[in-house]
Amino acid sequence: MFKLSDDRSDTQRVMKKFVAFLSVLAACASLSFAASVSDITDVTPKVDENPVPVKTPPPAYPETLLKEGVSGIAVVTVVIDENGDVLAAEARKASHDDFKAPAETAVKAWKFNPAKLAGKAVKVKVAIPIKFNHTVTASAN
Fold first, then answer.
1. CB-CB contact of 109 with 57 (8 Å)
2. Are 60 and 105 in contact (CB under 8 A)?
3. Which of 49, 84, 121, 139 has the smallest number of CB atoms closer than 10 Å to its CB?
């Protein structure tokens, strides 16, 4: 795969490229969602400006609850970083357990203008209510 030369500079160049590749790989791995909202502890507790959602794809409505005419709510705890990206999301409460997974999945795709403290973007943890209204969803179909 690699053609290694007896020339020391070629070997060093290959090693530098390999180390750079491993660094990029490690950085990409760190972009994935945290295992849990509680794993992220370096959040700012109070801010001057709350995060503002700018991209909010709606959750999928659980088919069985839609057919049964069940409306409800799920509360998703979210960690939003300094870039406005969702690092972790967990639906901890819901009026029906079937609302938790789609609410969590939807919020993970949201994008925010980040929270700010003294004009600087900061990482925060917030709770977001996600409403499921069967009459609105049914009339949209």
1. yes
2. yes
3. 139
pLDDT band at 75 (very low <50, low <70, confident <90, very high): very high
Q: Tell me phi and psi for residue 21, to 5 degrees.
A: -60, -45
Helix (H) or strand (E) holding 77: strand 72-80
H-helix segments, 1-85: 8-30, 63-67
State how far the Cα of 132 lies from the Cα of 59, in Å rounded to an integer.
Answer: 8
Strand-pairing partners, residue 115, are 122
The string of pLDDT tens digits covering residues 90-130 is: 999 999 999 999 999 999 999 999 999 999 999 999 999 99
Sequence-distant (6+) residues with CB within 8 A of 32 are none
Percent of the chain scored above 90 by pLDDT? 69
